[in-house]
Amino acid sequence: APVTDVQFGPMRLHQDQLQVLLVFAEEDEQSNGFRWACDKAGFRWNIARTPQSALECFLDKHHDIIIIDHRHSRFFDAEALCRSIRTTKASENTVIICVVQRHTDREESSILPLISAGFTRRYVENSSRMACYNELIQLEFGQVQAQFKLRACNSLFTALEKSQEAIEITSEDHVIQYVNPAFETMMGYQIGELIEKELTEVPINEKKADFLDTINSCIKIGKEWQGMYYAKKKNGDSIQQNVKILPVIGQGGKIRHYVSISRLCNDNNKVEKTCECIQAESQTDTQSCRHKDMRKGSLDVRSTTSRGSDGISQRRRSSMARVHSMTIEAPITKVINIINAAQESSPLPVAEALDRALEILRTTELYSPQLGTKDEDPHTSDLVGGLMTDGLRRLSGNEYILSAKQTHQVAGSLSSPISLNDIPPRITQAMENEEQWDFDIFELEAATHKRPLVYLGLKIFARFGICEFLNCSESTLRSWLQVIEANYHSSNSYHNSTHSADVLHATAYFLSKERVKQTLDPIDEVAALIAATVHDVDHPGRTNSFLCNAGSELAILYNDTAVLESHHAALAFQLTTRDGKCNIFKNMERNEYRTLRQVIIDMVLATEMTKHFEHVNKFVNSINKPLAALEENGNNGDGESIKTVLRSPENRILIKRMLIKCADISNPCRPREQCIEWAGRISEEYFAQTDEERRQGLPVVMPVFDRNTCSIPKSQLSFIDYFIIDMFDAWDAFADLPNLMEHLNNNIKYWKGLDGRNLRVLRPPP
């Protein structure tokens, strides 16, 4: 197989045989031309006939070049396929070519839509074998080789990231473009505080100015500078460094970047408190210009303050010093300080291990796992991207208006509610086994003409004595349930009042489990049932990412953060308190109402998926593991020890969050037919979102949810594997739910069976 050696600076790169993916719905002269050209050039090639097979083949092979037929839109949407491929991490350095029709009778069209879709370039159809071959050879020595060099940069940056020397890279204009973790640790800055900042230097005396002129006299002729000086940390302290500064020659033979490599001096414990004097040590050889380049201004360096008077800089340093001297410390700060102190007297391997621990602790995503190999699965990637992020923060010209100005249903606009005693026999029969997990919510949906929430709510709330706790009448509760149900969108295939009723049923079922009853107080049970009822009220059938990308009024109102969950909680209380006829809280004592309200809001916000792993991990570490330890130590019968774990306020909050989270996404743990129905409904809602994103020109949040290509079994298996299994293992260990776990295992086998037969639908053909 042909291989190529590529020179990249001092690196010699070994490039394997190129791989090409041809995406043509039908065989024709053009596709045959490229196949011949691949063979002649010695490239390996695959051919795909559909977008789905193309995506799967690419994720398996990671081709260098993809050639997509854009001549016949009736077969598939080439631009949509390109966008789908570009959402995968593997496509970062892939060259994608668009084959377009040759038109001689009309004006040349713009290439911008193709570039926007993610294509690298276009190829005007020409089935000549030599034309196809020439195109591939140009790609090999042009874009492909350039992308190959870019891939090599990842190894260089890995080396920089792991280097124990502090490294800083700036532009020719002295604007900081990169600093490595060692630099952040040494100087006390985070990378976000430095990038795109210009280093400023205000000479304090002539000696200092002379020193800077000495350095600059070397860098002007492209020489390195090496020496020692005192640099200023973020907190105002001075540290002595051995610094090497290297100019990097780039385009046009000019200096385009400066690289600064710093190391703390051995006697650095003697920290000077003033930076009046930046000292050049005697070994600095000025005459021979062994100096390595640093632009004027990078010495006082780390003063990345905005350009202003020296007085302003001094005042800012003074206020920052006061902040650093404060005694208020967050627990995580105390942990980091303890580790830092331990590092000083630790052997090198231990110190390096503690460094890695500190890197992890300083991240903001402490509880979100890395995708690892799952990152190659587009279904998992899209689900994580769609459910655990708030979109690309990109406004479009066509903002999506949701609910902000619409009139919500209120008690007075609804027909008079029915009494619990007057429920029709068919509905009564449909609710007979509502205390069992295998209760069929869809039978109740049909019997109530898509109004299951009022009826199921009346029965469950009566069973738990909610009216007695709230000191409200049954008629008020009925009115409230009607108002809430009326503000669910029956047009949504999934997020409608049937989903709310299903979550309410699951919540009531979990509340009846012995371990849960031991843990929660009556006010917790009331809060859980109300939160389940309102947790998705006025849901638009679109994800948070969609609303943020579309610039919706709700996204703007809630600052792109937990947009829908914040709206559900806020609207629920607005609808409840604006009319006395449905205000179930009106007779509560003020402090008790505030406590109840706080718990309801916390539980509704817990259904937001961006903190999924935080909630699950905290539950496992604070509840599962301590309970397991008690059992292992033979303290299973020690009621006081168990009570201490279960009844602490912090742990009760974690249990309530876990309860509603499991109730909210328990569909894979339902009996098979219910599981299949829910899978079809959520898929349809995601398909509709993808359709609308394409109509509006918005980023497609979950490209695999294309109704023409999506594999529902694969999407279900990805969701179960990534979100469900670990969570329900933890919840089962706590609440003892063998029937749910049996359904879950059976449903996994069912979806795997369909996927193994390459079926993309909900049910096998008859």
TrEMBL record:
The active site is at 495 (proton donor). Transmembrane segments: none annotated. AMP binds at residues 495-499, 536, 664, 716. Residues 288-299 have a biased composition (Basic and acidic residues). Keywords: cAMP, Hydrolase, Metal-binding, Phosphoprotein. Residues 419-758 form the PDEase domain. Zn(2+) 2 binds at residue 536. Zn(2+) 1 binds at residues 499, 535-536, 664. Hydrolyzes the second messenger cAMP, which is a key regulator of many important physiological processes. May be involved in maintaining basal levels of the cyclic nucleotide and/or in the cAMP regulation of germ cell development. Binding to RAF1 reduces RAF1 'Ser-259' inhibitory-phosphorylation and stimulates RAF1-dependent EGF-activated ERK-signaling. Protects against cell death induced by hydrogen peroxide and staurosporine. It is an enzyme of class 3 (hydrolase). Residues 301-312 have a biased composition (Polar residues). Binds 2 divalent metal cations per subunit. Site 1 may preferentially bind zinc ions, while site 2 has a preference for magnesium and/or manganese ions. Pathway: Purine metabolism; 3',5'-cyclic AMP degradation; AMP from 3',5'-cyclic AMP: step 1/1. Residues 152-222 form the PAS domain. It holds the Pfam family PDE8A_N. InterPro entries: HD/PDEase_dom, PAS, PAS-like_dom_sf, PAS_fold, PDE8-like_REC_N, PDEase, PDEase_catalytic_dom, PDEase_catalytic_dom_sf. This is Phosphodiesterase. Its EC number is 3.1.4.-. Interacts with RAF1. The interaction promotes RAF1 activity. Its cofactor is a divalent metal cation. Residues 286-322 are annotated as: Disordered. PANTHER family: CYCLIC NUCLEOTIDE PHOSPHODIESTERASE. One of its GO terms (molecular function) is metal ion binding. The keyword Hydrolase applies. One of its GO terms (biological process) is regulation of DNA-templated transcription. Belongs to the cyclic nucleotide phosphodiesterase family. PDE8 subfamily.
